[in-house]
Amino acid sequence: MDHLWQIPGNGPPEHAMLEDYATLGYLAARTTRIQLLALVTAVIYREPGLLAKAVTTLDVLSEGRAWLGIGAASSEQEARGLGLPFPPAGQRFERLEEALQICLQMWSDTDGPYAGRHYRLARTLNSPQPLTRPHPPILIGGGGEKQTLRLVAQHLILICQQGFQSSLAAATLQRLGLAQATDLDGGFDAWTAAGLPVHPAAPSNRRSSSSQQ
Fold first, then answer.
1. Helix 20-30 with 48-61: angle, nearest 10 deg
2. In angstroms, rounded to a whole number, what is the distance separating the alpha carbons of residues 45 and 73?
3. Shortest CA distance to 51 belongs to which of 20, 5, 88?
4. Looking at the DSSP assignment, which residues form a beta bridge with residue 115?
5. Contact, 14 vs 183, CB < 8 A?
6. Tell me: the pLDDT tens digits for 152-197?
7. Nearest to 66 by CA among 113, 120, 130
8. Does 60 sit behind a cis peptide bond, omega within 30 degrees of 0 on the bond before it?
9. Rounded distance, CA 143 to CA 190, Å?
10. pLDDT tens digits for range 76-89
């Protein structure tokens, strides 16, 4: 998980928590098959251009095993504690949407500028490109219909989240235009019942590493 302090429920904040992408780089060097991702990166902790570059580097060095896991952030305590920004929820979701747009642009053949409400990039050059084409798999963390499900449907993104296994989530994603989903943990019967195509994950995806400490 991409946290800086230990999260409530797992232990006190003083318990050890390693930085995520340094840990994933270590795991890339020590493994050959597991998929590598953060569950999930808080969008406000890293500028999107740098995040896209970090995931690209991880994908290249791991020979195509990196994912982008990203969310709108939820831990105000650690953000405030380490002097990181923690804007209101609405702004964080706006930043999440723009970060996805920037990552996808950097993983495309376009290296032109990007101008959003929160981020402005003069040139989205990204060399080398990820080995995984058209881009590394994307997983969005969250649980709300208004924001998270809309982003999932808009970008046709792979998801796994207990709250998304309900028939309501399946019907909502179908209405929003999601063409298919990938079942990462074997609990998507409600999706199938709602008529949403579900693809079983490859065996390697079931062994994904999230660098949880």
1. 10
2. 8
3. 20
4. 120
5. no
6. 555 545 444 444 444 445 555 555 455 555 444 444 555 555 555 5
7. 130
8. no
9. 16
10. 889 999 999 999 98
d(CA 126, CA 107): 7
Of residues 7 and 171, more confidence is placed in 7
Judged by phi (left if over 0) then psi (alpha if -120 to 50, else beta), residue 135 lies in: beta
Closest to 41 measured CA to CA, from 24, 16, 29: 24
Asked whether the bond before 128 is cis by omega within 30 degrees of 0, the reply is yes
The domain made up of 20-207 is a member of CATH 3.90.1150.10: no
Residue 181 pairs in a beta bridge with 198
Domain ranges in the chain?
Answer: 20-207
**Cβ proximity of 73 and 44 under 8 Å:** yes
- Reading the block at residue 183, the tokens are 């079942």
What pLDDT does residue 32 have? 95
What's this model's pTM, rounded to 2 decimal places? Answer: 0.74
